[in-house]
Amino acid sequence: MRKRTVLALALALILGFSTAALAERPLVLRLGHPMAPGNNVTVGYEKFKQLVEEKSHRKIRIQLFPNCQLGSDRVTTEAAQAGTLDLSSSSTPNLASFSKAYMAIDLPYVTSPAHQQALYKALDEGRLGDALREASRKIGLETLMFSEFGYRNFVAASKPLTDAASLMNLKVRTTDSPVEVAVATELGMNPAPIAWGETYTALQQGTVDAEGNTFSLLNDARHTEVLKYAVNSEHNYSMHVLLMNKKKWDSLTPEQQGILREAAREASDWQRKESVALEEKAWQAFRDRGITIHMLTDAERAELKARTRPAYEAFAREVPADILQLLEETQK
């Protein structure tokens, strides 16, 4: 009897220690995204990881898998939907295939740098952010962070870029985004959907003449080695959206959710400021490389807007009307 009592006590102690150990085990969340080291999106998620771990005293830990280690943003977003990955970051053009709500952001000239702070405020505190968060919930994901990606500009390897006429007949690399393809077509360009990882070689070999992207990403990817000309067209704006599996989010305690929300908000503020600095650095890198950058006049920009308007109107009909209206309100 005595032996049984001792054994029972020993077993209780072991179970107690095991339960305590489990309780102390940190929550580990895996985050996959496609961006390269040093990119403005990448450093933003590094800041998010730092803040989450500091605020939770490392009871929540973020494992980062950048640079397509777990696949493209489409692949990681599908994995987050399925619950095989906790967190995914995807560009808004690639998210348009998951929900038409994101296509609104992809429309040409739907927003501009002059109204950037109004856009941020609407995303962080206003109905626009609420509507996009609700759109993500409908596809099984919870939105944590709207990361700045930036404004795309047209660049070319061999032909000077100035006004809309200079873009005519150029073979331009695009993503699979139907909006991006339509914009290039309306400008008289020949769109060629090519994977991002193959674009440098395509430019180098003359398979394509041009592409459109942020100066920051082009500099990070060393495309400046083959580019000769650029124009500040700012024809398209993109964000990277940090998304979490909805069931995983709902399983967290209110305290854990609060830590992730607070860290995401602080990381967003920091990342947006850092994006400005990185873009300025990239502009200087373009100049140092001898790349000719044409600065559009007001009339030249107005012509680009007018020529791409048919693409805007065609795809605007596919976008939820409330989201497009909320987005347009930030530009007044």
From TrEMBL:
Signal found in the keyword field: yes
GO biological process, alphabetically ordered: transmembrane transport
UniProt signal peptide: 1-23
Gene Ontology CC, one term: outer membrane-bounded periplasmic space
Signal recorded as keyword: yes
InterPro entries listed in its UniProt record: DctP_fam, TRAP_DctP, TRAP_DctP_sf
Keywords, alphabetical: Signal, Transport
Family: Belongs to the bacterial solute-binding protein 7 family.
Name assigned to this protein: TRAP-type C4-dicarboxylate transport system, periplasmic component
Organism: Desulfovibrio piger
Lineage summary: Bacteria, Pseudomonadati, Thermodesulfobacteriota, Desulfovibrionia, Desulfovibrionales
